[in-house]
Amino acid sequence: MTEPQLTREFLRELFLFTSLADDQLDWILAHVKLEHYPAGTAIINEGDPATCFYVLLSGALRMTRLVGGSEVETIRSDQRGSYCGATQFFYGQHEQRYATSVYAITDLTFLTLPAREFADQFRSWFPMATHLLEGTYLGWRNSDALIGQRRRLLALGEMSAGLTHELNNPAAAAVRATAALRERVAGMRHKLAILAKRDIEPDLLEQLIDVQERLVKQVADAPPLTAMQQADREDEIGDWLADRDIEQGWDLAPIFVAAGLTAESLDHVLESVGDALLDGALRWLAYALETEMLMGEIEDSTTRISALVGAAKQYSQMDRAPHQWIDVHDGLDSTLVMLAGKIGTGIEVVKDYDRDLPTVPAYGAELNQVWTNIIDNAVSAMEGAGTLTLRTAREGDRVLIEIGDTGPGISAETKQRIFEPFFTTKPVGEGTGLGLDISWRIVVDRHRGDLQVESEPGNTRFQVYLPTTEQASE
């Protein structure tokens, strides 16, 4: 490798030093060093004392930060003149530490300057600029921390409210069904005792139990009925009960219909027990059928709760490695569950999934944040009424995830700026303008994918393209 000749002219080729005076460049030349690193080398470790300011001359690097104990890549660069390391050297704190780790992707060469000496000289060269930079840096850091914390709290609050709302319905249903089940079991015991006092022959009681077991097994397979079919079936069974002088048969008819019984089913009960025991047998049977249906309701409710908890775990990726091969449909579905409360009943959700898509190498939790940002914006644009469409497809060596809404659309001027940080079309106080910027960086920078938007009134579509190859997520 040929060593570059460090001269004023050489330094002025780097954009950082282009406008420096001769005496300033002379100071740089007196303190600068050339450092070479082979590919794969860890050059800077996050958290170590920030002692050097690095300027890239050749090669490519990548920066990472630790997030939740996992190393997250933030940027890659091969631009000559890019800088890293002690980039806040101008800030008047003596104990500064590297904010990121830096690794060599290829063999590379740096110009390095001692951070403390460079800071003192920089302040003497540009005293006013140093004060402005310090003020800007402090203001940005405080605002970023405050806005970021507020945004996280708002997002967490919305997610918690939505999940709590979704959990409350099946939990309340399970509680109600359990209370009703207790009453029905007690009633069933009471009716069985009454039947036993009537000196039923053992064979007849056994036959009655067989009839009960056979009819109870039909409950799970009871066909769904329309309101009209339900009413007609109840009238039919009510007439059957009235013809046989069963008191308050209108109370029993809805139970038998919900369990899938017909008048023909009741004929079999009559054949088994006879007229004398029919009333008690039917009421005992009603308790047994209702008990079975209540247990089914409890099972459905608890299964729903378990599914919601599973969706929350899938959304947060709390029990998974940060980077893995994932099915994008899992993340989309769990995001819909988490946002169900915000989506509401006025928005129809349409899923047009290609279930034959391959898995993709990705950071699942981060992609879920992308789906959240885009879906949240779509729901806000539709203002409670419209159609939210989620479509997936294979396009060459990439997977397409498209999220569309029927809102008013995005103007051409807005579309040009929509991925800029802090740009928002929402009213003051309702948006930070960071959601789509974050989504862009996750899709494009982290996953080497692409994020596009197409929009016209009534048809806005955000299109996320993710590569299916492992090297895209290195």
Overview of the molecule:
- There is one protein chain.
- This protein has 474 residues and is of the alpha+beta class.
- 51% of the residues lie in helices and 19% in strands.
- Strand 14 and strand 15 form a beta hairpin.
- Helix 10 packs across helix 12.
- The longest helix is centred in the middle third of the chain and has 71 residues, at 127-197.
Any key phrases for this structure?
single chain, 474 residues, alpha+beta, 5-stranded mixed β-sheet, 4-stranded antiparallel β-sheet, 15 strands, elongated
What does the secondary structure layout of this molecule look like, with pairings?
Elements: H1 8-12, H2 22-31, E1 33-37, E2 42-44, E3 52-58, E4 61-67, E5 70-77, E6 83-85, E7 101-104, E8 108-114, H3 115-125, H4 127-197, H5 202-217, H6 227-243, H7 249-258, H8 263-273, H9 278-316, E9 323-326, H10 328-338, H11 340-343, E10 347-352, E11 360-363, H12 364-382, E12 386-395, E13 398-405, H13 412-417, H14 435-446, E14 450-456, E15 459-467
Parallel strand pairs: 10-12
Antiparallel strand pairs: 1-8, 2-7, 3-6, 3-8, 4-5, 4-7, 9-11, 12-13, 13-15, 14-15
Helix pairs in contact: 3-4, 4-9, 5-8, 5-9, 6-7, 7-9, 9-10, 10-12, 12-14
EC number: 2.7.13.3
Pfam family, one: HATPase_c
GO molecular function: kinase activity
Q: How would you spell out the order of helices and strands?
A: HHEEEEEEEEHHHHHHHEHHEEHEEHHEE
Number of strands: 15
Order of strands across the widest beta sheet? 10-12-13-15-14
Reported for the largest beta sheet, the result is:
5 strands, mixed
Cα(first) to Cα(last) distance is 28 Å
Radius of gyration: 35 Å
Number of H- or I-type helical stretches: 14
Structure classification: alpha+beta
- In terms of per-residue confidence, which ranges show pLDDT below 50 for 5 or more consecutive residues? 427-433
State the shape: elongated
Strand content: 15-25%
| Average of pLDDT | 80
